[in-house]
Every structure is written in C-alpha cells, then in structure tokens.
UniProtKB/TrEMBL annotation:
Source taxon at top rank: Bacteria
Protein name per UniProt: IS3 family transposase
Keyword Hydrolase tagged: no
Pfam name, any one: HTH_21
Classification via InterPro entries: Homeodomain-like_sf (IPR009057), HTH-like_dom (IPR025948), Integrase_cat-core (IPR001584), RNaseH-like_sf (IPR012337), RNaseH_sf (IPR036397), Transpos_IS3 (IPR048020), Transposase_8 (IPR002514), Transposase_IS3/IS150/IS904 (IPR050900)
Native source organism of the sequence: Corynebacterium glucuronolyticum
Length: 396
C-alpha cells in the first residue's frame, strides 16, 4: 500500500480527537484512524496541548527485605483478588437474564482455559462435582437455550458498542471475527435480536443540496448506475451533504469514495459550500492514492462540480469527469447512500449538532472509523481498509 500523507488540518483533528475524549486511549485513536501509534504521538508533540501528559514516575526508594517480603505477599493476594474480580465482572454479563445455576456452570465451562475450575467454582459458590456432573449430562435442548442466551449477551454488547447502528448481518460478521467461537448464521442472530427487541437504526434523512448552474458544460454519464469497479483507483463518486447546527447554520461535508472498495479516500468539512471545498476533498483523495491519473470521478450537476476551477483541478490530476441526470438521486446513489448512512448513524434521533465544533469532531471521527472499523456489506462485511489490503494481495 502506498505511503499516505495527511494535511495539517487532519493532524490537528486527530490530536483533538484524542485530547478531548478522556475515555479513549492513544492506541484506540490510532486504530480508528488507521495510523501508527508513533505517528499519532508525533502529531501530539507537534500540535497537542499536553492535556494527557503522563507524569514522570518517582524514583523507587530502597526497601528492606522484610518489607519486600510483605510486598510480595500483598501482591500475590492482590493478584488473587484481581482474578476473582475479573471472574465476577465477566460472569455478570452471563447473569443478564437472571442468576441461574446452569448459567454459572456455563460460565465456568466457557472460561476453564482462562481460569482454574477450582477458583471459578469457589468464586461463584458452586461445587466442582456439580459442575462436572452438569457437563457430563447436559442435553441438546438446554444447551441450545443457554447458547442463545449467552449469544444474546454478545450481540447486545456489539449492538451497544456500535450505538445501535448495526443490524443482524454486520453483528454476525463482527462475532464471526472471533476465531475462538463457532461460526454463526445471520438468521440465528436476527432471531435472537428480535427476541431481545434490538433493531438496527433505519431512519433516513433526505436533503437536496445540488445547486445547478445554468449554461455550464455538463459531462457525459460514464457510470450509468454501475457503481462498481474491478480494481482500485479506477472509479470514484463524490457529493456534498449539509450538516445542520442547532443555531440554524450549517456545516458541509464533501466526499470522494472509491467504487471498488467503498473506501472514503478523501473528504473535507467546512462552513461553506464553495468550490474550494470539493477541490480540497479531491486533493485529499489524491494525497491518499498518490495519483488519480486515469480515474473517473462521478458527481451530480452541482455548480461546484461544473465550475471552471474544479474542471481545471480534474484536468491537472488526470481525472475524467462524469455526471448523472438532473434531479435523479439514483444517478449518484452510492454517494447519496453514504451521506444517508453518516447522518443516520451520527445524528440518530437528533435533528441537529449542538455546535460547529461538535459537528466537526463527530463527523471526523465517523469518517475515520468508516474505513478502519465500520463493516461494509459490499466488502463482505469487512472494513474498506481490510478489503483493499486483500485486493492488493491478490493482485500481487
């Protein structure tokens, strides 16, 4: 994969994403952005405020042997208590549907390679002989009922972690990534989700943002609803969507998406809808790919895309423009779908963002995670980045 380059604005947004959320670690932010941890550390040194600076550890004083022996004993005791605490924490997830004896047995059975059976039975207050007897005589029906209950806990955990945005197929893909578990069928996951009352968020928002400029040259539709490509860096689609703010103003997001991998290769956020916004998004895409020469960029008939400045940028980058029909959202369906998904998953039941800063941070984070963490049905429920890596491996 070619080396990626980032604008200063992207770097500052990445630093702000880390410093302004006390619940995220540097490793998590690096993973979400798809960058190396050392790279993020370097950006923090450049642009950070020092809000999360790690204090320097104090020099260890001399300790006499008696005290050291006591410390070792206490550490051993603490390790035992921590293990018991961890067992209880993990067991609590199993007790979501009630504290039944069979659920305790199942927890011990599921974690017997991680903790000793003796320790778990002592913590959960069950007899080892009872556990082994249960294990030897459990029947298929009880196992199925218990398995569904435990799977429901895992499904709920993924569903909540993704803010209620994942449906049965994406949750199935997430759970099947756990190599230690039995492969799941999405129909079973859907059935359990229905029993638990869990439904992926489906509300859609339709907003018209295309402003056509009369008298300007319109390019031929080279796509004709075929939003796919047999290789990377061949066909892109782009659009602008508005992001409503509580004070009545708007922010705007311009995007460039690869039709082969569904990856968001370039985007730009601003408080205006000028041509410079879409040019910035296209230039960011070029920085990601290193070159866009020979590719096709498909858009609607918006004045920013028919402007002389944007046409010149496309020529300079070796990009051929393509445009769909006027007033037909299906002619740019991929980009429209992306915009709809973004608003649906970020805003959910809210109508607006609280302010422009919150809007920028939330949208920036979602766009970053879209490539690195969010599973896409087109990619076989892999992330776009993972899909691209496999594509390049097959080509190589």
């Amino acid at each position: 994969m070619p080396r990626r380059s980032f604008s200063e604005e992207f770097k500052r947004d990445a630093v702000a994403m880390y410093e302004n959320d006390p619940d995220v670690s540097m490793n998590q932010v690096s993973k979400d952005l798809g960058i190396n941890r050392a790279t993020l550390r370097y950006w923090i040194d450049q642009f950070g405020t020092g809000k999360k600076t790690t204090p320097v550890a104090a020099e260890k004083p001399d300790v006499d042997p008696t005290v050291e022996k006591e410390i070792r004993r206490l550490r051993k005791e603490n390790a035992r208590l921590r293990e018991e605490r961890d067992i209880l924490r993990k067991a609590a997830k199993y007790f979501a549907e009630g504290d039944k004896l069979v659920i305790r047995f199942r927890f011990v059975d599921d974690h017997r390679t991680e903790y000793s059976v003796k320790r778990m039975c002592a913590v959960l207050k069950i007899h080892r002989s009872s556990y082994y007897a249960w294990r030897s005589r459990r029947d298929r029906r009880d196992h199925k009922a218990l398995s569904d209950a435990l799977l429901g806990v895992r499904i709920t955990e993924v569903f909540r972690r993704e803010n209620g945005c994942y449906g049965a197929k994406r949750i199935t893909a997430e759970l099947n990534d756990d190599r230690g578990s039995t492969p799941l069928n999405h129909k079973r996951v859907a059935r359990i989700m229905k029993d638990l009352g869990l439904y992926g968020y489906t509300r859609r928002r339709r907003v018209k943002t295309t402003v056509r400029a009369k008298g300007r040259h319109v390019f031929t539709d080279l796509v004709r609803h075929r939003f796919y490509a047999d290789r990377l860096n061949k066909l892109y689609v782009g659009d602008i969507t508005y992001l409503p703010i509580a004070d009545g103003s708007n922010m705007y997001l311009a995007t460039v998406l690869d039709c082969c991998s569904r990856r968001l290769v370039g985007f730009a956020i601003a408080d205006h809808m000028k041509t410079s916004l879409v040019i910035e998004a296209l230039n960011n895409a070029c920085a990601t790919r290193r070159s866009l020469a020979g590719s096709v960029f498909h858009s609607d008939h918006g004045s920013v895309y028919t402007s002389d400045e944007f046409k010149k940028t496309c020529r300079d980058l070796g990009v051929t423009q393509s445009m769909g029909s006027v007033g037909t959202s299906a002619d740019n369906a991929f980009a429209e779908s992306f915009n709809s998904t973004l608003k649906r998953e970020v805003l959910q039941d809210r109508k607006t963002f609280a302010n422009q800063l919150e809007c920028r941070r939330q949208v920036f984070r979602w766009c970053a995670r879209y490539n690195t963490s969010r599973r896409h049905s087109w990619c076989g429920y892999q992330t776009p980045n993972t899909f691209e890596e496999k594509q390049m491996y097959r080509v190589a």
